[in-house]
User: What shape does this take?
Amino acid sequence: MTHALEINQLHKIYDNGFEALKGISLKVEQGDFFALLGPNGAGKSTTLGVVSSLVNKTSGTVSVFGYDLDTQVSQAKCMMGVVPQEFNFNMFEKVADVVVQQAGYYGIPRIEALKRTEQLLKQLGLWDKRKEASRNLSGGMKRRLMIARALVHKPKLLILDEPTAGVDIELRRSMWEFLTRINEQGTTIILTTHYLEEAENLCRNIAIIDQGKIIKHSPMKELLKTINTETIVLDILEPLATAPKIAGYSVLLVGDTHLEVTLNQGQNINSVFVALSKTGIEVTSMRNKTNRLEELFVNLVTNNKTDLQGVSA
Amino acid sequence: MSAYEIYIAYATIVRKEIQRFMRIWVQTLLPPSIIMVLYFIIFGNLIGSRIGQMGGFDYMQFIVPGLIMMSVISNSYGNVVSSFYSTKYQGSLEEMLVSPMPNWVILAGYVTGGVARGLAVGTIVTCLSLFFTQLDVYNLGIIVLVVLMTSILFSLGGFINAVFANSFDDIAIVPTFILTPLTYLGGVFYSIDLLPDFWAGVSQLNPILYMVNAFRFGILGVSDIPVSYSLIVIGGFIVGLFSYCMHLLNTGKGIRK
Assistant: This one.
């Protein structure tokens, strides 16, 4: 089956000589919810910029649903909608006009564009604001406006560059629900985000990019399986003077009412509870110390940096 | 994109551009009208009455075609340079760049917006001039053709300025230091017959001279330059600037990273 997005050996060298992309290759399947992660300056936005033709590539090929971005640019562009990181609509235009105009750029007749705009603004909770100048919207509303604008021509591939940056948790969750819904309806979604919890919850496949190279490209489940250790924080009822000893487990006392238990792959949290219960320690609540993907991400990026330093040394 | 879809995309930009300058008419339509009325009063009535005749016509009659062209030139240029640069500055240009719309449609849309404003201001100024003098129409076809070609040419010029501009200061430099002097020296207020031979020759390097004279021919039937020669010069500039604009859009210079 044709891939929703296929990138081969993509290179980008900026005019100042900075090599932002060093031969990236990537495949995103149709219907996927795909995360492209990486630290700041890793090349995520450059990659998406090339795909959305806002950045000129130096070399390599990009195809969207089989349409080559060099030779079949019009068809390729019709397939995708883009939600950039920065607000990039005319702040003086009315909310509805921003969406209707975008439909016009795709050749959608005005009557149809007005219908679709109403539908999308209602779905994204912006219908009441349709006559307001877009500069008057809150940050979260501006993000939703960009999503409505990107969807007005019914793209099969939606590219979102940090769509939930600066959005409060309630809005973020409603945005997740919306994106999950349109993904279930068949739209392929590619997402970059710094909220790794977001990627872990939403995405089925993932690529991690660092210093212009893909350092990991795999299904999310497989990636998470490779995590060797996980740290759990247990809140306990009575203060302790020293950490209890549990055979086979590393337990740290943090403050006097928190325990940090490190579980290796295959170890069971139940054994910890049993052991604590035997010593009379009552656990009131429990949480992960950090997001699992976050831990893995930090490890991968750190290892990549170490490898590169080794090479340059 | 089909031809119909391309037409819709083009019409979307044109509608947006016209709505923009109509929405801010106090900044776009009113000032040139007030300035031209001042020109009519000061240069036409007060000073013109002492100058007497120029080229066989009252001084007021002589300068009106030039002043109309001056407003068409500055407004078609100003519309495109400010609108396209604002679009670039705010990032909303990306809305067009990610769409399947061909580059020439983007250019055509902005140029049409510039022409529309040039024609709107030109029409207002022409109507205002009727309060001060009688305007005859010697050749309507030439009038329409010259106004259209001139506004297209300066819209293209404004587009190039906007592509290269990196700040709002940059979009004021060309109109202030190039366009205004060329307009004043382009035979708006005098016939080049009054100049010594050397300066009359130098004046012929000024493209605005051809536009002003061709337009004056359409209204008064007199011109310092043969009209056909003027139309060829304007047409040549349009072809050259259009090609350069397309080159800029296709290579992404100043637009894509």
Remarks:
- Chain B is about 75% helix and 0% strand.
- The mean pLDDT of chain B is 89.
- The interface with chain A takes residues 1-2, 4-6, 8-9, 11-13, 15-16, 86-87, 90-92, 94-102, 252, 256-257 of chain B (CB under 8 Å).
